[in-house]
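Any chance you could type out some protein's one-letter sequence along with its backbone structure tokens so I can compare the two?
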Amino acid sequence: DWTVIDNIDIHYYGSMDIVDGSMAQFVQQQNEEYHNISYTRNFNGKWQAFFVPFEIPVDEDFLSRFDVAYINDLHSFDDDFDGTIDRTTMEIIAIKEGTLNANHPYLIKSKKSGKATISVSDALLFSTNNTTSINCSSAYVQYDVYGTYAKMTGAEVAGHYGVSSNGGWTKMIGTQTLSPFRLWMKMTTRPGSPIKVDENALKNISSH
């Protein structure tokens, strides 16, 4: 139907109900207004990747059900000072107000485990062709975080990182896949880097 605001006609489509795990790829070619947009997913009470094509107000209702954070930086530590990186931690910052941007990587943690729906009314469903990535770097290592709306195969994700069930980032192997509405991270060492990394330190990156 149509809504008239200050003599400007705005066309709203009905509803867009996105159910996590029900599709191999989500495609939205152009920005479109909907009366209702919803995203339903199983949450486990730990940090999970979050990447959706619509804006979400961070209001009292949302914060009563979820914690949400943006990725600010990554830090590596040589705990025993032997010249080898022993662990890497992702620095995340809580979001307590404002709006979550569409097509932008976030981490989300539910207050309760189980299936939950996030919905917005009279909202814009953004094109999935224009997405935002996050780039963090140290003197010798660059980390690039991307969101995906398509299922990624084992060959595509092998050697990269995805958010694991324990809320941290795990180095993925070729037998794993990555679902839509998730994040993946690529780590690149700059040429000439003197960095040595313990193999165990590469397997998991904690979020805090």
Confidence is low (pLDDT under 50) at residues 1-10. The helical segments are 60-65, 154-157, 199-203.
